[in-house]
Design a protein that fits this description.
Layout (H helix, E strand, L loop, with lengths): L2 E3 L5 E2 L7 E6 L2 E2 L2 E2 L2 H8 L14 E3 L6 E3 L6 E2 L6 E4 L2 E4 L5 E6 L10 H18 L6 E3 H4 L12 H8 L27 E3 L7 E3 L6 H13 L2
Parallel strand pairs: 1-7, 3-11, 3-12, 6-11
Antiparallel strand pairs: 2-8, 4-5, 6-7, 9-10, 13-14
Helix pairs in contact: 2-4
The chain binds zinc ion.
Zinc ion binds next to loops.
């Protein structure tokens, strides 16, 4: 399994902790599952957009191809919106600040997910559980943390997914995982290239794609919001 890095412009630097994993679907339009390329360009538009800004950490296509990562695990992607869940006995809101968001291309009200998607998702989730000490209990669908949301829908096979992960032991569960010292991304030699340890051949540039003008637009958009 491989990961391809395509950075979204839509994220906040940093986050509180990776305590949860949230599963999403990319949805459909007029009965047709939205295209993979369409999702990528929604999260990384060629023309800057100051409204409907959204992103996820990972996107998994229906057909076999590398998983696309669009936001670093240590940064906050904009996938969950208004949301809440109890984490370690405390009701948390704005789950973006507490989670990794994974999008499956598809619509769980319409069609089954593909075998490749289960394989890729399980491969990816396993690593995140181990790296961030996330128990299986805190891997949830968007519809659970935001009850008005439909995804990943009734066609997502939770039994298949959970049974594949039942053997994963989460090291030191109960230990706060809000530091990223074990396996966090570190630019060791200061060249702006960060090595990702879960694959052999992926490099993440630490620079930000957003240019000055985009940041300016964003600034004014934030002033005029509400
Ligand atoms: Zn969603």
């Amino acid at each position: 399994m491989q990961i391809e890095w395509i950075e979204s412009q839509f994220f906040d630097p940093g986050k509180i902790a990776n305590k949860m994993i949230i599963i999403h679907h990319t949805g459909s339009t007029n009965g047709q599952v939205n295209s993979f390329e369409g999702t990528l360009s929604w999260f990384k538009p060629a023309v800057w957009r100051s409204t409907n800004q959204a992103s996820a950490h990972y996107v998994i296509a229906r057909e076999e191809r590398p998983i696309v990562q669009m936001v670093r695990d240590e940064d906050t992607a904009w996938h969950a919106g208004k949301s809440s869940w109890e984490i370690d006995g405390v009701l948390r809101e704005t789950i973006n600040r507490w989670s990794i968001g994974i999008e499956l291309q598809g619509d769980g009200a319409l069609v089954q997910y593909t075998s490749f998607q289960y394989e890729a998702l399980i491969w990816l989730v396993k690593q995140k559980m181990q790296r961030f000490h996330i128990p299986i209990d805190l891997i949830r669908g968007h519809q659970e943390i935001s009850p008005h949301k439909p995804d990943p829908g009734r066609y997502f096979d939770w039994d298949r997914f959970r049974s594949a992960l039942s053997s994963v032991t989460v090291p030191g569960s109960g230990i706060p995982s809000d530091d990223f010292s074990d396996g966090g991304l570190v630019d060791e030699d200061g060249d702006g290239i960060i090595y990702v340890d879960e694959t052999d051949d992926v490099y993440i540039p630490s620079g930000r794609d957003r240019n000055f003008l985009e940041r300016l637009f964003d600034f004014f958009a934030s002033i005029f919001k509400k």
